[in-house]
Write a structure and sequence with these properties.
This protein is mostly helical. It is 61% helix and 5% strand. It has six helices and two strands, in the order ααβααβαα. A two-stranded antiparallel sheet has the order 1-2. The protein is flat, with a radius of gyration of 28 Å.
């Protein structure tokens, strides 16, 4: 009954009020997501949003025990945010710096040999 009254009230609003209402709803959803990011334990829906995984992907990972999760009641899934962060950051690839960056297709032995040849040229001059 109350929902029908709300729908009637929305229909009676002017266009500028509808725009403001949609902006407020957007801000509300942003606040909700920020508040959920402060939680240490996430439910299934929140974990999907946090990791960026779809529901089916996350469910498959929990079924195969490839992602840390908890089932305190044997039915509902919960995720520790710190464990998710560790899982997300596993298998980190090394960053290349300017010092150790090599052009593609070259290896360090060739570069070392070139350095030796160059130093020999300058030593003979």
């Amino acid at each position: 009954m109350e929902q029908k009254n709300q729908q009637r009230n929305v229909k009676n609003l002017c266009p500028s009020c509808l725009v403001k209402l949609s902006l407020i709803q957007g801000q509300l959803s942003k606040l909700e997501s920020l508040l959920s990011s402060l939680k240490a334990t996430l439910n299934f829906r929140e974990a999907c949003l946090y990791t960026g995984l779809s529901r089916s992907q996350l469910y498959k990972l929990t079924q195969s025990n490839r992602i840390p999760h908890h089932k305190p009641t044997g039915r509902m899934l919960f995720f520790n945010k710190q464990e998710l962060d560790e899982w997300l950051c596993q298998n980190q690839k090394g960053l290349r710096t300017e010092e150790n960056q090599e052009p593609e297709g070259s290896n360090s032995e060739n570069n070392e040999a070139e350095k030796n040849i160059t130093s020999l040229k300058f030593a003979t001059l």
